[in-house]
Amino acid sequence: MARIGRFGQSQADPAPPGRHFSGRSLQRAQTLWGSYVIQSPDFKLFFNGDSGYGKHHAEIGKRYGSFDFALMENGAYNKDWAQIHMQPEQSVQAALDVGAKAAMPIHWAKFDLSFHPWKEPIERFVPAAAAKNLPLATPKIGQVFHLDINALPQEKW
Known about the structure:
- The chain is of the alpha/beta class.
- Helix content is 20%, strand content 11%.
- The protein has helices at 55-64, 88-97, 120-131, and strands at 36-39, 44-47, 69-73, 103-106.
- The protein has a four-stranded mixed beta sheet, covered by helices on one side.
- Helix 2 (88-97) links the parallel strand 3 (69-73) and strand 4.
- Helix 2 (88-97) crosses helix 3 (120-131).
- It is globular, with a radius of gyration of 16 Å.
């Protein structure tokens, strides 16, 4: 079993970083947070989890190379949460930093946990991705689709 340690400081492949806080129990700071790399011989996926934007995204891209697809946090943000949740434009940049060939904004369309309007995250993410030529998937909640960069769902929210 691989030992999980600080990014780049383990003989085994450590969990890629993220930046958030832990607070799912009565005591804060009792657990770590991170992101995920899921890789098969034919496909590489990045799951951002919850994270503020930072240099760790570029470090992940450098360490793992490009990703076929990235699931990027895109919601529950405000200026006071900048260290733990990204603005939509930062989520697009983070996808580019990790080397994603395509991305899907997540963490926005189910529960409204912030003060921004419910549709604002997708309304900002889509044009930001288009401006950077980042292909994206915008499925309906629960929609099943294949991770084919040439046939990603393009639902209008």
